[in-house]
Specification:
By secondary structure, this protein is an alpha/beta fold. It has helices at residues 24-34, 51-59, 76-90, 109-115, 138-155, 171-176, 186-199, 223-252, and strands spanning 11-17, 39-44, 65-69, 94-97, 121-125, 132-134, 167-170, 204-208, 210-212.
Amino acid sequence: MSPSDSTPGGVLVIIPTYDERDNIEPIIARVFATNPGVHVLVVDDASPDGTGKIVQALADADARLHVLHRAGKNGLGAAYIAGFDWGLAAGYDVLVEMDADGSHPPEQLPRLLDALSGADVVLGSRWVPGGAVVNWPKSREVLSRGGNFYARISLGLDLRDATGGYRAYKREVLERLDYAAVASQGYCFQVDLARRAVAAGYRVTEVPITFVERVRGESKMSNAIVREAFVRVTQWGAAYRAGQVRAALRRRR
């Protein structure tokens, strides 16, 4: 279905997929069971396991569900950019990022949407009071907490979970941010969008969520994603601190 065929307004939940045939139908069912008024766009990167075909069959029977078939595996960031383009063209008022593997409970989506009454961007946070992770090894928790601490200190962000991928944007934020210029993937894509929103003066808030480690399928996390995040955050941090120094020198003149 093309963007022009969908109903404008409302909430669009964007779910990128690659080889998620065991997870995608249950997660879509949970989204609609607990949030019947939203629409869902699955952005599938030509999954060899047939995920895209499964979603297409479901979409043919439910006008609330849409699928965007991409030619190949091009990464999480590129999938979200394509999803944002589609959702904005279709006229949705709120665009939500959600993982396909069940780690972002759809039952907690109302928390994010309710918080938009006082914010422009809402991040589902594992690391604010009330947030939690389930079935994570300690090594993953240390990596996530450490990465967020590094991003917070390097970039001057007053955010506890800038790497999290469960979040909601008002359309005007995405319309005004140059999100298409975000070339990074994985954690880094999320950090980049968060810092751009903060720098542009938008109200970014966090609400607690419970992150549940996937039960089926393989995680897309890799050492390459972690390395990219570290390098890019370091580069952005250096530019941020240099800007602070320049501003301080101008004030002294």
